[in-house]
Amino acid sequence: MNDVFAEFLGTMILVLLGNGVVANVVLRGTKGHSGGWIVITAGWGLAVYVAVVCTEQFSGAHLNPAVTLGLAVSGKFLWSRVAAYVIAQFAGGLCGGALVYAFYHQHYLLTEDRGAKLGTFCTAPAIRSTLPNLFCEIVGTFMLVFTVLLFAPAQVTLPNEAGLAAVGLGAVGALPVALLVTSIGLSLGGTTGYAINPARDLGPRIAHALLAIPDKGDSDWSYAWIPVVGPLLGGALAAFVYQFVA
Fold first, then answer.
1. Is pTM beyond 0.70 here?
2. What is the distance between the alpha carbons of residues 234 and 27, in angstroms, rounded to a whole number?
């Protein structure tokens, strides 16, 4: 499998299963309705596990522009490959979001809460305040990328054009990175919904804007930059700090 396609496929799987558990909890009439935050964080952790298992051997399983940026800044990934990976990740996020809507279509018809519908695509803050929300996304993503960098082998190479592509979430191992994401969700997710991944938020948000979802409301574009900029800053900061402590 081509490494760029693997990033597309892995991110699509990540969003399908991750946003799928959100839909199962918040949409009306599902078997998992009102399952709560523990179900959501566990579901997202397992979504990461499945996505990493499916793609780690092909691309390193970045599945996140903040991870790709952090690895490039730290010298563990080629800058020439960053744009292709990031585009694939955003496209995968968009398709994953559309698949969640197709899967739960009947339950979207039953759900009147516009915020709940939007929440199955992208994140929103519990208390809307720009600087605190941005700070939370920076810190959450810092923990993700910094831990990945500390756990990853110093040198991992694949015999393909991607060079150091094998270093990614997959270099940590599927189960450890799933536990890491679950921990971030449980401990740090209550303020902004822990996007910690621009593709996981912006891709599905674009899907929400494009899809003909009945009575969906707006896509909250005034907030949309925070789960993009915050994770990118957190990933870059993690790489910068890693270079001094590793």
1. yes
2. 31
